[in-house]
Amino acid sequence: MGKETGQSVVGVIDNIVRLGVMFILAIIFIIMGVAMWDSNNSQELYKGSFSAATLDRNWTLLSRGTERKVDLPLELNTEKGEEIELVNSLPGDLSDGMSLMIRANMQDVTIYVDEEKRVEYTTESIKDMSYYIPSAYVVIDLNEEDSGKIIRMVICPKEQPVVNEVRISYGNNVWFDVIKKGLPASVFAIIILILGVLMVVAAFVLRKYFNANTPRNLGFLMINIALWIISESGLRQFIFSRPSLTMYFSYILVELIGAMACLYFDEVQHGVYHRFYLVAECIVLGQVVLNVGLHVLKIADLYVTMKYSHMWIAFCAVLAIATIVIDIYTKRGRTYAITLIGMVCFIIMSLNELLGFYLNRFHVFGGSICIAMLFLMVATIIQTVYDEVNGFENREKMQTAMTINTIQTIAGAIDARDEYTGGHSERVGFYASRLAREMAADYDLTEEDILRVHYIGLVHDIGKIGVADTVLNKSGRLTDEEFSLMKKHTEIGYEIMSSLGQEIKGVLDGIRYHHERFDGRGYPDGLSDTDIPLIARILALADSYDAMTSNRVYRKRLTDEQVREEILKNSGTQFDPALAEIFIRLIDRKELSVMTVEGAAADLSGVVRKSSLLEDKLQRDLLDKVDIVNPTHIRMLCYIMKLMEKKGKEYIVYFASAKSMEKLEEQIKENSSNHDVFLLYTNEQYIIALYDKTEEEKFVFVNSVRMGCHDVKMVDIMDMLDS
């Protein structure tokens, strides 16, 4: 009692500590929110100004020999490649350490102050520069002496006939708005890059343990997109020492997006559309190689040919959308439903980026596609984990199914080898599962548990595979020595299944302990009461019930009343009394169907198996000292018949005799097929086993033999049952 009270106090303290920590964190979040967004900050320290002034008014535009006053930003009515000049006066209140900035949108820009060239950003000023010079921020330093001087900008638009605003501020404050706008996309891109590298590395490391192709391809796509965003970032002049070179890899990276996305989509969709994606990938890669070649040969600039690559990217997007629509319609999309949502989001955002390139000259690349990539990555990881969990469960099920198939095969072989227990394991499995179902409510057994009981019943006698035929199939009762050998089958079976593992829970207990007795006088370990595993106590009843309702060479099957009396008499000694009571209840309610007919093994439809009849006749003839020519051959025939019966195939069995056995043998040989079997049973009688014959084929065979051997007597083994 004191121990329980102590545990209760500890539990209360644990809860108080957890709630206290959560409350403190909540308070901290609230205070942080106020600190970040509360505008009542008049008493706080002044952090200075990052503002920049604009020099956008009263510019003089000189173009085509004319001049006019304009304000910036300005869209030009000039041809691409046509040079213009803009002239203005610098403010009169400049001071040392100030800067002036203008964004060159794929333009040659040269800035003069009082005709002194302060900066030149042109195709000619940079070695091996493309005609379509990358966009950049052009910055010059200003000082107090520049106050009021004339500033002249010579601009040659290559693509977009526009002049952006001019900004002036102290130090590098001119970069503040640029950084503010470009930082989120750049940070996102760096995050995507890091995550992409991690995805590729993780896929490489874990490739032996699961299908890593999908996360690997996604990782490469993420790296490709992240590098493209960084190369197109407004901050590239901070990131790269030679930002002018970004044009080469930024164009190629954006062109590769289509091919990389197709590789990823193809893997996600399990290669169903592999040929279509392969064609798209080859086209995109071919276009990239062609574009680079044309640029190197100075036939066409990368920027010009990139537009054709954009068409193929759009084609890849349309192809992906088409395959997704087909998968949704055919319900194939269910196999990657989680990733499918991310794929649709990615395609939409990618097309948005593509349209932004053509429709919005101020478009900031990367924001929307980064969000899509994060969403797609999360969806892919969840899908991969989900698939692996499902795959693991399916592999477990397949492994269990393989084990079960092996068990059923072995059980069939054991039953076929055991002359007097044909179908015994199958029947024990059925009886045990029926008992387990009746017990389910009281013993919390699930459907899976009941099925497991059935399978363990099938293999409970697997150890008989190690028992000698002379003991296993002895005609008559076993001697004490022989019985001691027979009892070893539980330990032999335990060792066999131990080496195979235990995919089916409880199988080892069922095999080893199904001959233990409730009073402790069983074998092999003398367990008693509930020390005997439940599965073994169930099998003990099922095994004994089948033994009592089957024929033995030394007795006929017991009557239903005798069986009931035996179970009651041995309740509490041989059997668990609680289970015996349930079993008796099943018998009394006639809810347990005996799977033998007059003690002979029958199939599920109640038809007596011919192999069982032949076994029964052989055993009785041996007990009656009938001179069987070769009992081993007859047993082998029984074994073959049992195997075929398991597959739903049948032998039609006749006992045939005639005055001239030589002539009878000749007729049997002449009219039988390679699949039929005929054996000399006694010196005066043949066994003929016709394999899987129709009624017409059976009729033809019998008549042909009788025509060739007029005094032949042929008796169907089924007629022996009727008689």
From TrEMBL:
HD-GYP domain ranges (all copies): 399-599
Keywords: Membrane, Transmembrane, Transmembrane helix
Stretches assigned to the HD domain: 421-548
PROSITE patterns linked to this entry: HD (PS51831), HD_GYP (PS51832)
Domain of life: Bacteria
Transmembrane segments: 16-37, 185-206, 218-239, 245-265, 277-297, 309-329, 336-359, 365-386
Protein name per UniProt: Uncharacterized protein
Naturally occurring in which organism (per UniProt): Pseudobutyrivibrio ruminis
